[in-house]
């Protein structure tokens, strides 16, 4: 289980955070809608929480 988490879930979670962050930056740089920026920021925060949980679960599973 730890191997699957470390090989697939952790990179996917980090990648999702990076994609939403880049979308938010692109929206701000081109002068997009402030409500879209806020929505993307909220998604980024949620995805960061998910990434932290996945990383902690991976660390826990590797210790077993």
From TrEMBL:
Classification via InterPro entries: Hypoxia_induced_domain
Entry keywords, A to Z: Membrane, Transmembrane, Transmembrane helix
Membrane is among the record's keywords: yes
Superkingdom assignment: Bacteria
Record has Membrane as a keyword: yes
Domain HIG1 per the UniProt entry, residue ranges: 1-64
Entry's transmembrane regions: 6-25, 45-63
UniProt-recorded name of the protein: HIG1 domain-containing protein
């Amino acid at each position: 289980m730890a191997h699957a988490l470390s090989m697939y879930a952790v990179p996917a979670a980090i990648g999702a955070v990076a994609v939403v962050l880049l979308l938010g930056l692109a929206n701000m740089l081109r002068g997009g809608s402030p409500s879209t920026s806020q929505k993307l920021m909220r998604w980024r925060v949620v995805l960061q929480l998910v990434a932290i949980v996945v990383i902690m679960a991976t660390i826990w599973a590797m210790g077993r």
